[in-house]
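Before we proceed, please read the two lines closing this message. Tell me what the token row says about the fold.
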Amino acid sequence: MKNLNKWSFSKLFMILSCAAAVFMTLPSETSAWSPYTHGAITVEAFSARRDLLPGAVYSSSIPDITTNFISPAAKDKLYSVFHGAGFMEAAESVLKTLDTKKETASIRAAYGFLSHAAADPVAHADSGYPNAKVTFKVKKELNHYTAYLFMDMICYKNYFDGYGGSFGKLVAAADANFIQKSLAANAKKTGEKINADKSFLAKKVATFTAGLAVEKAIFDCIIDGNPELFEQIRSFYCDYYLGVDGRGGFLDASGAVANQVANDRGVIKKDTGVAAFLNRQKYELIYAGMNIASEVAKDAEFIRTGSITSGRLRSLVDKFFANKSESSQAMGKLLSAILFRKDLTYEEIIASIDGATVARIDDKFERYRAAYKNVKQGRWYSFVPGTGRNEKVEYADSFAAYESAKAENALDAAGVGTTEKARVMELVKARAEKFKDHYLASGLNIIGKARRAGASDAAFACASFALNYAVDRAKAQKAGDSSLVAKLDAQAKYFSDSANARIKSAASMKLIDKILGPRSAAYNSSYSSSAAPLLASIAAIAPKSSKTPAPPAGAGTAKTPEQIAETADRSEILLEAAKMGLTKPSCAKDAYDLMKKSYAGYVKAASSDASAEISGEAAKMLKTYLFYKNCYEELVKKEVKAE
């Protein structure tokens, strides 16, 4: 790049320093989930306790405020205390004494801290996602950090990223009243006195917030600056939700929080009045400052354009990491490749860190790799509207074929049944179509782009869950692990419950919400309408079982169609179908299509009805769904026997 000035170079060093610093202490036994992951886990675990939000989410980083993304080595005595069992017991005892009317902020802070403390052991276990997910075969010491870093990016995208985040912004908070009382209670047991006044905690939070802003900048650079690579990365780590082989994932962590954190304090009152207004403004200012810092961190030309090819800059990067440890040099190389080498697929980046080359996998991979390089090739006429569309079409098609082949191989290797495999592959195909639609959409139409983003994200979530659920369940069945099978079935129900809750929330969106946040409204509406028919495919994959454990985290009380189907009497279903004039389909495919259509109809009707009772059109569509689901299951059994 010809016009790099001193300011650009200083920003380059800042990005490299901040990004690489998180890995300077390799290895570390205390690293588990990162802040955006802890925030997302708290959102899920307390989804039925809206009175605890957003305070509990903001406070979920309390145990880590003495370290941060910029300086993870800065772990003082307070860090050890916060992560100790004694402080957790002290926090639980303090929570019981807090006034539900006067100390609401402290109560939320206590739940946020306890959420963090309960989620960490899931990550620390051998089966925890950061420990079990394999990215590198040679540089194995980087697997843990790479897994939790990109899991953090996915959680950031799903929950806290702009108009598409389901929760909203994330800032760090550390309530002095709760922390000081808990430290005092801990000191009575251990004799260990630590002073942490408001000024001390404010400085810690400020430093932690700066690190959070830098992490946000790096994630934004990948998500917005290189959407192809982001899609590759989130596809690689799409098993984060259930975990490797169905263990130690995001849902296990949120389930641990929901099950272990005492939830008997009762509903606390909503903060109102001048104090509440000022408190909200404080968080808004903190978030605004984070955004400014984040924009500065990612504003360098090298990140915006991706045109880093000069030997001078490469030597600069090499010099930066020259005196670091071998592990940090490897991670620095990874981050440099992700931010700078926009001609390498994620598979090629992994291979380069391992000091190897990507072996020829098959023709689909070679086509996908060639298409990616072609779409990233700089063209002097790129300013012309429509430039590169043909290349992008070829990339989207080749990426879809590659991902489809990977999914099919995984399903075959796990021994997933023919019918279930067909349902999963249908979702994989839908995901590819929605990704292509969003990828090719013009950025000039921001509402249309947001709408397509919602549809793409919904399709990705459903396809990824279905694929990993089917594979993990088949493996568990083969191993005779009935408890894991039951857990996975419960998590499948929770996934559907959560999606249905989001669909109903989008349907109840008010006009003022659409006016004030048109992109967010377009995204959420499209996400919900796209997810509704896809859930029927997931319902078809999930088996009909008599009893399963309760969902792992804050699921709503309203029953989903799948739950109703489990307890519905077959004779009653047939009787109602006869009254409605429904006839039995001739094959499983027809039954499935009708089941899918009626499911979508039920969701649409139920979403427009605010009452708790199922009646009218919703009741009619539910009966129709139950009938065709029953037909589908019978026909599948017959067709399998015939094979």
About this structure: The longest strand covers residues 243-244. The radius of gyration is 25 Å.
